[in-house]
Structures are given as C-alpha cells and as structure tokens.
Design brief:
Low-confidence stretches: 124-134, 234-260
Helix content: 40-55%
Strand order of the largest sheet: 2-3-1-4-5
Largest sheet: 5 strands, antiparallel
Length: 278
Amino acid sequence: MSAELDALAVVNQLRDLAADPLNRRAIVEDEGCLPGLILFLDHPNPQVVYSALLAVRYLAECRANREKMKGELGMMLSLQNVMQKSTSPGETKLLASEIYEIFQSAGKEEAEQAEAAAASCRRKAQFFLGSNNKRAKTVVLHIDGLDDSTRRSLCEEALLKIRGVISFTFQMAVKRCVVRIRSDLKADALGTAINSTKVMKAQQVLRTDDGGELIMPFQEDGEGASVVEENTDIPDYLPEEESPSQDPDKAVTRMGSVADGMGWLNTAANFLTRSFYW
C-alpha cells in the first residue's frame, strides 16, 4: 500500500510540475521522468493512471515535445491499452484518446490538419469541453492563509462557485493557485470569491516587462469590485490552449522557480529509478 501511495504522490507532483509551461521541456528531456510516466499508464491504481495522463497531456501542449514523446518506447502502445481496457473509466479513455490523436497528428506538414484532428477528439471529451467553446486564459493567484488542506478546501469551494472557472491547480508550498478561466471573466472576481472566506486573501501574480514577477492586490469590496456570478451546476470545462494566453492581465503560470522544479525532478527521477526497470 505504501508503494502505491508513493507512486500516486510522485505522479501527482509530476502532474503539477507539468502544468507549468516553464517545466515542460525539462521534464521531457529528463532521462527518467518520461519513461516513468509511461509506466504509470499501466499502473493498477486508476488514480495513478489518470494523473499520469493529465501530466502527459500538459507536456503535449508544448509542440516541441510531441515528436519525442510520440517516439518514446511504449508511449503509443500504453495509450492504446488504456483506451481499450474494459476497466478504464470513461473519462480516462477519452483523455487517452485525445492524447493519442495529438501524437498521431505530430509531424504533419500543415498545422491546421493537426489542430483539426485534436479538436475532433476534444469535442468528445466532456472533461475538457463544455457547452461554451471560448478561448481561456490563465491567472496565477498568491493566497495568504493557504496553509493546510482545510483552507485549500475552502478555496476550492469558493472557486467552484464562480461561473467561468474552468480548472485550477494548487502549489501549496508557495501558496499559489493557477486558475484557468474564460476570457470574458475578470481576474478580480477570483479575488473577491477567495477574500469572502474571511480567512484567506488573494493577490494576482503579474509578469513585469523585465521578466520578473509583481504581486498585485485585487480591488477591495465596494467601489469597482467585480460581482461574482455563481455556478448552479458543475463548471464548464474547455480545452487547454497551447500556452497561457497573453491577455491584458499579464497573468503568468509560473508556480515557483525553475530551479525548485528541477530539483524536484531529480527526486522524482531517483524514485522512478529505484521503483522500475526499463
């Protein structure tokens, strides 16, 4: 059981690192991480398989990674096995099918053909696609008070109530949350919702012209504050874009320094080396 828990912890951390575009090339170039993710696709624990698929999906958003990932030993075969396995949950099969289509399209001369093939499969995957197919953008929040699982649950509840929130990923070590939202949703609506918990305060992480980061507070309740439109149903899901949109908010997806991420990659690679043979 402990080995299974360790595997889930490792694959979840790889998934969170892969969510940051700054880490994707390094993860794929690492000698242990990509082969380890492929082995996780055959893991008996469905949670491990699904988390590994999410990590592969994030990595495949980087076009430069696709040819190498497609050619990695066992990648395409493992995806086919997940799609064909009778015990695979429906959303897991759909996600594996989407990734398989992306890799099948890699290397085609016309980018439009590749996009059409991936979009055709994405239309079937309800996990990523809702009734509104609008372009999404990424907002990074720094949340003071995000200290434990109880606060994280409160933050999740607040974000899930906002109509237009697509998905979110937490980086607890640095008190950050990366949120994918519809392009027509204002970022300060997120701050209003999180600040309403009364135990946490959200600020937005922006990119400066010199490539650094700037943490900006949201408008206080009252004048100019956004009205949060709440969801009455499950939030819509949209397909992830190739990279975070360069919107006027200048939101970035950086969840920590590249050095921190690469240090953890070494730890993950060591775990994979101890646990598997290939």
